[in-house]
Amino acid sequence: MKVLLTGSAGFIGSETARQLTADGDKVVAVDVLLAQAHGRDAALPAGTHRVDVRDVADWAGLLDGIDVVCHQSALVGAGVKVADLPSYASHNDYATAALLAAMTDHGVERMVLASSMVVYGEGRYSCAEHGLRQPAPRAIEALDGGQFDNTCPDCGRPLDWQLVDEDAPLRPRSLYAASKVAQEHYGLAWAEATGGSVVALRYHNVYGPNMPRDTPYSGVAAIFRSAIEAGDVPRVFEDGGQMRDFVHVDDIAAANVAAIQANREGFTPANVCSGKPISILEVANELCEARGDVPPLVTGQYRSGDVRHIVASPAGAAELLGFHAVIDPRDGLREFAYAPLRG
Q1: Residue 20: partners with Cβ closer than 8 Å, 6 or more residues away
Q2: How many DSSP H helices and E strands does the chain contain?
Q3: Residues near 242 by Cβ (< 8 Å), separated by ≥ 6?
């Protein structure tokens, strides 16, 4: 199979390229080497085409004979400033629209899209008395008082988190999240308009060797690692009880390969997760214990707009793509404590 891979020099893209090549697939690697992801002095890997996905002229010849596009390139991060919005819309949304149009021009009918858990916003919650409930955004007054859990809008009792499946409503809570929802919507509309296929893989918290060290692409696991290496301790926001799903980059790449091989029709969203929830405090503890360092510091600080819990069900990806993560996050994080980082 001939696969065009955008963002091929990145954290996830490079591992995906390695696994595809190992399986005997031909990879056409493209990357623009955004400074935010690679640093200003990064060199283009051998055999990689420098392509700005937004520039239709850059696609000359590259899409010829391609069976499927694996679209990994994106501007990521929390996107906390409104001033960032045009960049997210340009690099993520416009770029995806331009790529889909170019695919149609070249007769390419399949895309695997790197989406994210952030499309859901808050996770799924239930009240012991009232059943499933969607909480309102957490009030500043409650956060200032150390009340971090979401509460039932009917009775005010703490809500219990539940696994999120792919049918959950999309409620983006950041500019980055809004751009990922837009990418999915372009993919859905394109698939219906052309009869093409888009698999939107909603990655959860990715970590692993060669993760960027100190960029918006780093993620909390790398931030904790960097703090330990600097002689500091990981500083855990809120009470550390925030539940997440951490999934190893090897499993993320394997999900990409599974989606490419599955040859689905229409638009298919799928959570990519380990299926083994872990709290943020547990993540910090695993790293500290593996390295023999002092325990993390729970600060009680918070970031307005952060979600409390977001934990996915792996059932959809297993059924639709035949994908099962194989690395337990507790094992993977202990390995990650000494793994090499980028930058």
Answers
A1: 3, 5, 27, 70, 256, 257, 260
A2: 11, 18
A3: 148, 279, 280, 306, 307, 308, 309
Distance between CA atoms of 28 and 26, rounded to whole angstroms?
7
The alpha carbon torsion through 247, 323, 99, 17 (nearest 10 deg) reads 70
Alpha-carbon gap, residue 279 to 277, rounded angstroms: 7
- CA 29, CA 31: separation in Å to the nearest integer? 7
Q: Specify the pTM.
A: 0.95
pLDDT band at 78 (very low <50, low <70, confident <90, very high): low
Q: How far apart are the first and last CA of the chain?
A: 33
Residue 43: the pLDDT is: 81
Tell me the pLDDT band of 39, cut-offs 50, 70 and 90. low
pLDDT above 80 for 214: no
- When mean pLDDT is compared across 34-38, 207-211, 336-340, the lowest value belongs to 34-38
Contact 1, 66 (CB under 8 A): no
Structure-block tokens of residue 186: 């372009």
| Average predicted confidence (pLDDT) for the chain | 93
